Amino acid sequence: MQRRLLLGHPQLAITIGRLCQELIENHENFDNTVILGLQPRGIFFAERIKARLHEITGAEVELGYLDSTFYRDDFRRRDSPKRANETKIDFLIEGKKVILIDDVFYTGRSIRAAMDAMIAYGRPAKVELLVLVERKYSRHVPIKPDYVGQQVNTLDSHKVLVEWKGQGVDDDNIWLITNEEE
């Protein structure tokens, strides 16, 4: 297995700052905006976005965690069911602008499932999708992110791994992992 660094700590911090600036440009204020981080890995990125937005604007944007396990189209097709994560949304999203956040956008299927799961908490006025990495040429459903940190050309056999410092690694990094046989 080979690992190639896509973004290291300094570039990742700059990318997060740029994404926050794009959000600020498109939201007059964040009074009617909430953030939903997708379980399991999108929540770490969502926490970073919320913290950086607060640093820049002073806005306190509500943050929730959304699990879409039971809404996935492959949930019942597995030999052993996928383990669900916690959904933690302590607010209504009815009439709110929702920023849905995930770390890696691959086929779009998890985002489709997340949008179905999100409706249980109300009908939002608008939904935007913010992703750290968009894997190009792999889309299965017609969903496109509104905000993208970095686009990466990948094969189906590749994997994009996002590591956050708070998860026991030394630095924030994004890796492209390939099998040695390729």
UniProtKB/TrEMBL annotation:
<dbReference type="InterPro" id="IPR000836">
    <property type="entry name" value="PRTase_dom"/>
</dbReference>
<protein>
    <submittedName>
        <fullName>PyrR protein</fullName>
    </submittedName>
</protein>
<dbReference type="InterPro" id="IPR050137">
    <property type="entry name" value="PyrR_bifunctional"/>
</dbReference>
<dbReference type="InterPro" id="IPR029057">
    <property type="entry name" value="PRTase-like"/>
</dbReference>
<feature type="domain" description="Phosphoribosyltransferase">
    <location>
        <begin position="7"/>
        <end position="156"/>
    </location>
</feature>
<dbReference type="Pfam" id="PF00156">
    <property type="entry name" value="Pribosyltran"/>
</dbReference>
